Amino acid sequence: MHLTPRESVVLRALAEHGSVREIAEALVVSPHTIKTQLQGLYRKLGVTSRRSAVVVAEELGLLGDHSAGHSEL
Fold first, then answer.
1. Contacts of 30 (CB under 8 A, 6+ apart)
2. What's the pLDDT tens digit per position in 1-42?
3. According to the lineage, what is the superkingdom (predicted)?
């Protein structure tokens, strides 16, 4: 699976933050931008939810050590 550098950043932020607003604030972009980027990520990962995206990303090794301790999503 090939993710763009930005998609990788958003994916890691998804594993670390609870909401679109929190991700947007952490990455200094608008919530709308994050929603759009998440749609693309979900499509590439073949999922429809944040929880599923994180689970699949972990299974594919896309999160590295960044997801440790964030299974509460």
1. 24
2. 788 999 999 999 999 987 999 999 999 999 999 999 999 999
3. Bacteria
